[in-house]
Amino acid sequence: MEANETKKRRSTKKRSTKSTAKKPVHRTKKQQGDVVFALDIGTRTVVGILAVKADNGYKILDMETVEHDKRSMTDGQIEDIEAVAQVIKTVKAALEKRNFIKLSHVCIAAAGRALRTMRSSTVSDVSDKRSLTADDLRSAELDAVREAEEKFSEGQQRNGFYCVGHSVIGLSLDGYKVQKPEGHRGEKLQTEIIACFLPAYVVESLCAAVDIAGLDVSGLTLEPIAAMNIVVPPELRLINIALCDIGAGTSDVAASRDGSIVAYGMATIAGDEITEELMKKLLVDFNTAEKIKTSTLPETEYTDILLQTHTISNKEIAELLKPSTQDLADTICEEILKANDAAPQVVFLVGGGSKLAGLTEYVAKGLGMDTTRVIMGRKELMRGITSPKNMEIGTEHATPLGIAITASEGVKYDFTTISLNGRKVRTLDTNRLTVFELTALAGMKPDSLMGRSGKALSFTIDGQRTLLRGTPMTPAEISVNGKPASLNTAVRKGDEVTIIPAQHGEDAAAYLSDYLDTSSLYMAEISFCGDNKTIGKYILVNNQPVTADREIENGSTITTFDCSTLGELCRMEEILPEYVLLNGSAASPETALNDGDEVTMKREEAVQPAPAATPAAEATEPAVISDSDDDVLHVIFNGEPAKFPIIDKRREPIFLDLLAAFSENPTALLQHATTTTINGRIARLGEVIHDGDEIIIE
């Protein structure tokens, strides 16, 4: 029993010892530091590379390749940002785990079916420099890039494209070409570059996927630039070389000669078109067709969509793909000739699509070149790199390795990320960016920054001009990192800019009722001596009558019209009220006129009428009552001299008196007359008749 107790105590002691053992210490991941993390975000795969600069070139530390689960990219452009971000996360996590490192920033490259290029040349005054430095050359480069951006934006929507890369074509110092001006002295430095532009959504989608994966974009370049940097380094660019990087979504072309990269091009026929051709011919899905296409085995077994199993040899695959391979070769040749203007001396084909059987021969034939001058890229052609022995590097790795080298060389296209109203804006880091330039890159309209005062309103009422001013604008409020700023404030990477847009002033506005009584406005139609007349109380706006309150438009001419009584009508027509009848009866001048009223002329009882006369046609001679010059006026009537009797010497005779002398029915006379003038002017009934007047009634 004691033995059992002893065993129990020993057992207990042993368990106690285990429970108090020290836990393993977790090491903290090292920071990224000088380690370059490069991502090639391709249509079929995402390749991540870790590299460092070594004495004799570049050392590749690790590489990870992950295929997309679905077709989340097309022709080098992201369709599903979230799906691509998850693949990037997978690549990042694998590299971090194996290398015990915390990756925070990454260099990427862009491609796309809408590549545009622009050449630009600038001249910098370097007379104050003791000798040119690398910084001077870099500054001149960026000036040329900015010039290219401005030239390009003249014909494009400014916020529709990003400049994603550039190459220096040539440098001249005081008119002489210089391969390396660093250390030289001179007056004028001329820098010629070729800049590449892609649609903003292509770049933004790449950066968005990287952001979601928890990484900052420290550098962006163009895929053919990256591939050229590793396959055709500067020391080989005196030779006219064309490089074509054939990926899954795009075939990217670059050409060099005379020491520089002189052209870029991009076509959307690439590896995916070959895969799709296999899908149609073998009746398989895309992934199965891709496996068949990339298989290195002599024979490949596959199952089609009808669930039938087949075996196909490499020779049979090559035979099936001949037409599509020829089409791809034709496209590559066309793009090379467009970029280079002629067949180059050498063509390098890199990328996964370059492995297609017979492609190099088809391209050589299409360009009229010796087949030995068109070759597929391989590790030996990727100069200046070392890698672990167990790392397989092939032609498909030219672009990701090129991205890493481009970043290490410091010639990457560095983007500055600045927050504007919570939105990330990416732009070329020139160290001279202002708030105003940032707003232009973000597509913010100038009037939202400057504002404008409200428009003035000018109009005339009854001959008096009135001018109303609009209200003043409220200027934009600008802050950088929470501190007040202006449009000229410089901004740098990581800054947070907040802009409360300017508020436009309100335009001046007014209504008729602000100046006139519109409550009693009305219009009516009456008959006056057989003619229709519009009477009433209304307003004329630009000679158009209105009877309701309305907004006044700028430049309007406004007059009031008030003719609502018989007396006002007679004054308007220059007739004495006693000469008219209202609806057949005499009426006082104060009598209000209504719609449908009829106003006619009445005979002057004191006038002795001439013998019965017919209307105008028979009124050719006036009656002569007295031959005394004191009792008559001498007038010209219808072209003939006539004497017009003065009936009432207490007042001057008027045209109505003349009508009454000529006709028993003056109203009928006027209704039948087509022309009624005095001295060539239209006659008015109340118009005074003078000696010598010429009167026509026809």
Name the descriptors:
698 residues; alpha/beta; eight-stranded mixed beta sheet; six-stranded mixed beta sheet; 39 strands
Explain this structure to me?
Helix 2 packs across helix 4, helix 6 packs across helix 7 and helix 9 packs across helix 10. With 698 residues, the protein is α/β, with parallel strands linked by helices. It has 16 helices and 39 strands. The strands form 9 sheets. Strands 24, 25, 29, 30, 31, 32, 33 and 34 form an 8-stranded mixed β-sheet that branches. A 6-stranded mixed β-sheet has the order 13-8-2-3-4-21, with helices on both faces.
What's the short story on this structure?
With 698 residues, this protein is of the alpha/beta class.
Describe the secondary-structure layout.
Elements: H1 2-19, E1 30-31, E2 36-41, E3 45-54, E4 57-67, E5 73-74, E6 77-78, H2 81-99, E7 101-102, E8 105-110, E9 116-125, H3 134-153, E10 161-173, E11 176-177, E12 188-199, H4 200-212, E13 216-222, H5 223-231, E14 241-246, E15 251-257, E16 260-267, H6 271-282, H7 286-294, E17 299-303, E18 309-313, H8 314-320, H9 322-340, E19 346-350, H10 359-367, E20 374-376, E21 385-386, H11 398-409, E22 415-420, E23 423-428, H12 435-441, H13 447-450, E24 457-461, E25 464-468, E26 477-480, E27 483-484, E28 496-500, E29 522-528, E30 531-541, E31 544-546, E32 557-563, H14 566-573, E33 580-582, E34 598-601, E35 632-637, E36 640-645, H15 655-662, H16 666-672, E37 676-678, E38 681-682, E39 694-697
Parallel strand pairs: 1-7, 2-8, 4-21, 8-13, 14-19, 19-20, 22-28, 24-32, 29-34, 35-39
Antiparallel strand pairs: 2-3, 3-4, 5-6, 9-12, 10-11, 10-12, 14-15, 15-16, 17-18, 22-23, 24-25, 26-27, 26-28, 29-30, 30-31, 30-32, 33-34, 35-36, 37-38, 37-39
